Amino acid sequence: MRTKNTKSGWYLLMLCALALSVMSCGKETEEPDPEPTGPTPVVWKKPAHFPDPVYDLSRNPLTEEGIELGRFLFYDGILSRTNQIGCGTCHQQQAAFTHHGHELSHGVDDLLGTRNSPAVQNMAWSTSFFWDGGVHDMDLVPFNPIENPVEMDLRVTAAMEKLRKTPLATSKIPVNYPKMFKAAFGTEEINSERMMKALSQFMMTMVSAASKYDYFKGGDANALNAQEKEGMVLFQKNCSSCHEGELFTNQSFRNNGLMPMRIDDKGRGAITGNAVDNYKFKVPSLRNVGVTAPYMHDGRYHTLEEVLDHYTDSVQNSATLDPLLVQQNGKTGIPLTASEKQSLIAFLRTLNDEQFIREAKLSDPGIGNAL
Amino acid sequence: MKNIFSGYAGLVLALLSLFALSSCSDSSEITEPIPVTEGGKLRIEFDNVVGDKNLVLNSVSYVNATKEDFVVTKFNYFISNIKLTKTDGTIFTVPQDSSYFLIKEDVKASQFVTLNNVPYGDYKAVEFMVGVDSLRNTAPLEKRKGVLDPGGSMLEDGMYWLWNSGYIFLKLEGTSSKGNPVNNKFYYHIGLFGGYSEKTVNNTRVVKVDFGNLKASVTDKATPEVHLLVDVLKVFDGPGTNVSIEQFNSIMGGQQEKSQQVANNYAEMFSLDHIH
Description:
heterodimer, A: Cytochrome Bc1 Complex, Chain D, domain 2, Cytochrome Bc1 Complex, Chain D, domain 2, 2 domains, 2 strands, globular, B: alpha+beta, 4 helices, 16 strands
């Protein structure tokens, strides 16, 4: 109902704007409106070579105010029990919204999680979330880190209570959340739907599609050098059946032959309860892979060289090992020479998107903590 | 190749279910107008008991069929998708959006479910789901209000799995000398609606309680109250299996087959006491 109303509200507003512009014909065409009358719609643009998004924007139309609220919520430690840990603490922009240098992330009181912080990028196309795909809707994602006892450790109800009591004189920047919710949604009411939808709006804008590779795809043949092009051919032959398409993931769950650690993380198997899914994890996108070390669901590999060495030398056979990682001669892994690995890594680095990791609109507005 | 394919199949399934969902809720809005003018009320009491005793939390010790002592510290469950059958056989379906209830032993008011806009007439049976149907489990956030709000007050009782998006249908916790060696507790959290893109077990159960010779007459003056007994013992002691606390001090989403047996058990825990 709300979205419909907002929509029709928009039509009305646009009509008014049109009427105004007609009336003001012949006069100066400057903005006559000092009072904002409602949130400003933002048109979400799909990169031309990308598939259609999965997230349903008609349920949550983007607005400048909604995105801005989402950005503040993303970075503000107020959503944690200790007021220290925001989403941006473990999802840092310069590392394509991962926790650079952290095999596992530490949340409140430096408590450690069990998995490596995944990149928050191109979420618009995600069919499932987290390494095990346990969540299927972006609006339901933020509940997890906020409530997880080793991440932000706060009930969402309690977080909303804190937001309602802002601005707080003690915060780094006293943010007035009721006012921001009003600007984004029309009234000061703070509820979980609005909170999550604001976060989703911000995450919808976290699109990485301006790497050297993308310029190459866009027609600039010189965007990649000879070694990178050679790497691309090797990539298409050896990697793209899982790291598929422009998202560099087909979003499936695979066992890529990692030796289980002591915690014996069963990954997807714990979600489906089906033994055939044991030790499978979501195929991660490789966009920005050059800045998202360490790698794998538990951050066990620190460099791309180690990752490729895994695929050539260390793929462990087990009941659920991906068949694509078993060669015709029965050996596990993907055969690659040392120079092929260098070319592959050169290509992978062309997926780094400098624009994405520097974009001011995605950056911390000055309220976050990078620990 | 096969795996890639199934990945797509999952996606398609997910999309299809979204479509199904939107079209379903749309059509129910159109084809089932709420009879506002010609309707009364009917109340259902969910009275939790243990065998022939009333359930008392935190103090009284009971014994299950496996001869294990236990004290209940928490007993919550979802009731949804309520339907009432008239004596002439016609069925009144409570509108979807008003048909989700979370019964909690420690909140007396939650045990009385009042149905509004019930067409006048004599009713001979009630049908409901224990749990939350798959459509609502996969519904967008704006369709999850009240007891279904993943960020709402229900979280104080944690009736939602965040990490494996889905509602917990029934939660039974307690202590027992056969409980886990650390704190003597046992935890039964039964959920799983069948899976979003890949199949899991489906622990929703539809229960029908026949009123037998009795009937519930809804008129403009009378609000009948259907008093149901809900027997905690039946969660352990079921038609197929007797759950032993000693063998299973924790049953949650990780033991799907066992949780399915518990669901088969709790489908049998409802019976009619009286109507007044």
